[in-house]
Amino acid sequence: MAFNNNVFINCPFDPDYKVLLNPIFFTILFLDLTPLISETNDSGSVRVNNIKKLIQKCKYSIHDISRCEALKKNKLPRFNMPFELGIDIGCQTFSLKTKRNLILEKEPYRYQKVLSDISGQDIKNHNNDPEELVLNLRNWFSLVLKKNLIAGSKIWTAYNEFIFDFTNQMKKEGFKKKDIESLPKSNLIRYMKAWLSGRPII
Amino acid sequence: MAKNIKDFQYNPRIGRALSNASRGKADRYHIISREGEWIIKKDGNVKPKKIYSSRYSAIRYAQSALMQGKVREYVVHKKDGSIQEIKTRR
After folding, report:
1. Which residue of B has its CA nearest to A188?
2. For residue range A130-173, what is the model confidence (pLDDT) as tens digits?
3. Rounded to a whole number, what is the distance in Å from the CA of B68 to chain A's nearest CA?
4. What is the CATH classification number for the domain harbouring A136?
5. Looking at A11-15, A55-59, B34-38, which range is the least confident one?
6. What pLDDT is recorded for position B5?
7. Containing domain of residue A151, as a range?
8. Which residues of A touch B5 (CB under 8 A)?
9. What is the pTM (predicted TM-score) of this model?
10. Contact A195 B11 (CB under 8 A)
């Protein structure tokens, strides 16, 4: 049943996005789902093949297209996120019809100027606010899982507590702030899982 | 000293410590931004102890509780969940 629990995350992995990416991981784990990301540095493999395999493995996908813009003046924007979103919608249309995609944007209707074809999909705005993002994710999963889930505000406060315990523990282990930020995402996910495993069920 | 590659691998001992940390209820308040307000929540509790409209008022309450010995420590979180400040009773 792994397919039904897997969530593909198509988001930027740059340091500036960490403030949103970590709450995404945490919320998915809190809801007893499994986040899957493409974190390969294997230059020998074709990256898009890994992405396609991940998309096939996941019933749910989170696509954040809020960063599809040039990060600096005179630089080109990156289009990996809308490209992977397109693959996923194709997979849903022609093969795995039960798949569900959530598209995240930073402000309402911005996508209509650059990617108007996605109208009609599930699109939520996070306004670059991690708390709003957690609430949106929880509400969307409540809808697609057809379950009355724990309140998003409780997930958000639990995330804050996790941040404290995690930072505290890593500092005890001799990790500096920069070291903590350099941890592979897959390991951060495992630490989140470990922390959640100790929590009493609410 | 910078960490070596081995340290960046998953460490089950750290995982166990995190699991224990979330299981226990420490003598600590968290000041957290939530839905436009600032809540004070005791570590491990589900419900907030106090709710304030401003961060300043929440910190004042926590400071007073710390000085009166009602709590050993309080943590002020930024709006993104990261840690702004930790105050511990001496």
Report:
1. B10
2. 999 999 999 999 999 999 999 999 999 999 999 999 999 999 99
3. 23
4. 3.40.50.10140
5. A11-15
6. 67
7. 2-67+74-198
8. none
9. 0.93
10. no
Q: Which of B7, B20, B75 sits opposite A198 (nearest CB)?
A: B20
C-alpha span between B53 and B27 (Å, rounded): 24
Using pLDDT thresholds of 50, 70 and 90, give the confidence band for residue B8: confident
- On chain A, the residues whose CB falls within 8 A of the CB of B9 are 187
Shortest Cα–Cα distance, B83 to chain A (Å)? 7
Instruction: Write down the H helix ranges in A117-198.
Output: 130-144, 152-172, 177-181, 185-198
- Give the closest of A23, A182, A198 to B23, CB-based: A198
> What are the tens digits of pLDDT across the range A26-84?
999 999 999 999 875 555 568 899 999 999 999 999 999 988 877 777 878 788 899 99
SS3 B77: strand
ipTM here:
0.94
Q: Kindly report the CA angle at A185 between B17 and A102, in degrees rounded to 5?
A: 115
Number of domains in chain A: 1
Q: Which long-range contacts (CB under 8 A, 24 or more apart) does A116-120 make?
A: A118/A85, A118/A89
Question: Which residues from chain B sit within 8 angstroms of residue A183, using beta carbons?
Answer: 8
Contacts of A19 in chain B (CB under 8 A): 80, 82
Task: Identify which of A24, A29, A25 has the alpha carbon closest to the alpha carbon of residue A133.
Answer: A24
- Answer yes or no: do B43 and A161 touch at CB < 8 A: yes
pLDDT of residue B1: 56
